[in-house]
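Re: beginner question about structure tokens

> Can someone show what the tokenized structure looks like for a real chain? I only ever see the sequence side.

Sure, here's an example I had lying around. Input first:
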Amino acid sequence: MTTTTRVLAAATAAATALLLAACGSSGGDAAAAEDGVSVEAAFYPLQWAAERVGGDRVDVSSLTPPGAEPHDLELTPQDVASLSEADLVVYLEGFQPALDDAVVEAGDAAWDAGDAADLSLTAAAHEDEGEEEHAGHADEEGAVDPHFWLDPTRLADVGDALADRLAEVDPDGADTYRDNAAALRTDLEALDAEMQQGLAQCAVTTLVTSHDAFGYLADRYGLEVVGVSGLSPSTEPSPSQLAEISTLVRERGVTTVYTETLVDPAVAETVAEEAGVQTAVLDPIEGLSDESAGDDYLAVMRADLATLQEGQGCA
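And the corresponding structure tokens:
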């Protein structure tokens, strides 16, 4: 074989190998992932839902860094630029003011999960009648509670709607997105059944938490939530309001005041100390950190269930 022939043969073999490799990776979800259906999610629960529904067809990034408190999100110029470049921006109007202002950059790519979540609770809706002042929420009365993901059935509804929205962006992936959303719903309904059973018989039904993030969980499972701070953890109660909450803790036989992973526990610890009760960590799953009790939404929710069963004296 001549030198020229050997060179041509080698070139042909290399070209054939490249063609076979391309064929092996060009079908189905792998190609879509390589092409990149880019999704910008506002914070962790929306990121997790988008990853579950999108699967290998999407590339999901979170605008809220791991371990950061999403209420306090501040966007960099690079973050704002990413909104205009994304195929889909999944956010929750009213939850992160900085993003509400910037999401206009996404244009028609912006998708508010709140409509699918049915944000039916307000700050006043899950407080005691006649006792609104004790929780320090007078300034928030009537404000919409955005923390829907702590009710797994609402998060499942968001997953279904997100599948439809992704199918509009990527019609070839419609069946994949809807199948993934169905699998997500199965997991979330199983979680919901566990929580229904685990919280069905609790000695204490008043849930005193660091901030007012657990209204949807309480509404779903027959509890009543009292947040030491407001819907945003930056809302600080006055000394008189702290005293009123401490009195409520004693009167209702509350044995545990719950702190959080991403929020300074000092205020909640003050209430617990004043009332002579213990504290435990209850995660609102606004974001994951090294201190989270699990590596994804489902694991942290199950850890929260165990914490509630102990703290509320559930049979």
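Each token stands for a local structural state, so reading them left to right follows the chain. Residues 174-198 form the longest helix (25 residues).
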